[in-house]
Amino acid sequence: MPGPCALVLFGVTGDLSRKKLMPALYDLANRGLLPPGFGLVGFARRDWADEDFAQVVHDSVREHSRTPFREETWAQLMESIRFVQGTFDDDEAFVRLKATLQELDNVQGTGGNHAFYLSVPPRMFNQVIAQLTRVGLTEHSPGRWSRVVIEKPFGRDLTSAQELEKTVSSAFPESSVFRIDHYLGKETVQNLLALRFANQLFEPIWSRTYIDHVQITMAEDIGIGGRAGYYDGIGAARDVIQNHLLQLLALTAMEEPTSFTAENLRIEKQKVLDAVRPPRDFARDTARGQYTGAWAGGVKVRGYLEEDGIPQDSRTETYAAIRVDIDNRRWAGVPFYLRAAKRMPRRVTEIALVLQPAPHLPFTDVAELGANAIVLRIQPDEGVTLRFGAKVPSTQMEIREVSMDFTYGGSFTESSPEAYERLIIDVLLGDPPLFPQRAQVEASWRILDPVLDYWASLPTTPDPYASGTWGPESAAAMMAASGRTWRRP
Ligand code: BG6
Hints:
The protein is an alpha/beta fold. The chain is built from 15 helices and 19 strands.
């Protein structure tokens, strides 16, 4: 359990706060993981009293939390809730914020420890951080801490990421900056480390000697919903490849860290990200698409260009696929294919290590034998699958592909905490292994920037694909160029 502290939420009216952050705080309280000396402060423009904000938290908890609603937990949490009304250019509001935090220190015993969660667009960071600095809330005094939590997008390319980091580091040392990549908070992602490094079974084949290629897929069945303002001009590659997928790649491909401290993990992740080579032939090794209207899952859905708030001539990609290679001894010659998209046939995130074919097959009837594969199912059907060939009963020697499955639900009775529960508690504990450091963010942009520049230079729009299908033809062609195919999870 963390020591006494207060968490200040900027952006309380946003979707993330309502659907993820407030429910996660309640779930932590329900699991007995919030300290007795805790305070939650919301900061927003709305003309709310503490009770109004508490009601907002209450409603979001009722609707979205993972654990059952308990009156005692709520009553305790409600005591700790405060609201500060103001805009980011309102100096007085930040003076009031400081006073509120002092009041919480006195009444709730939050000990002068404060975490500032900037769930606001990055263009606001400068102003918020300047205001916090002006009123002395970023000062580090002995025995007290002040931390900042930032959400992606961490810039839109390397240059803007570096500018943003300059702003953040002007007020907070790197050890006090917590960059959220919520995929790292997922149980299944952390299990990747357990699978690789707690077992003897997998590591011997985890290299170019046996692996043919790796596919990392993040498919979503939803469209962009009400997020036009954020998504348009950003697109699938910046939205999730730059962060979630490259982090998954790093955990899949890195060497064993000496221990799981933040520093040792950082060293290994950084080494592997630095060894990633962007595609050599952009036309061959990348694909981008944009969903069009269609019947998907029994309903008629709109195409990207028909979504509210999207300009008719938008070139934003909702499907992005890239091939990268890793220039090191373990992975030389093993392509890593990353794809991320909206409006796919189903929601699935997985990492599939596809093995080379057996060097010799003393069978004739192998028509239904695919490549062996180790599939790490990140979500929603969390677990691990091994795909291999087995004899079909009572035939002579017909081989067909079968699966061996580990599912979380089948092996454990506990349900997995939400990623944000884990990440918020780690912020309050000051335990940083699950947060990407600045150098990783920059390395990821170095990988992606050349692809984004290439796409921006094309006179064409992204290739259309019908909603509810597995992407544009160019994506299939990209795999076919090396004689491979995308998995249909
Ligand atoms: C976010 C992206 O980081 O992840 C969204 O910005 C995406 O576009 C979301 O929908 C998916 O998260 P999850 O946890 O549902 O896979």
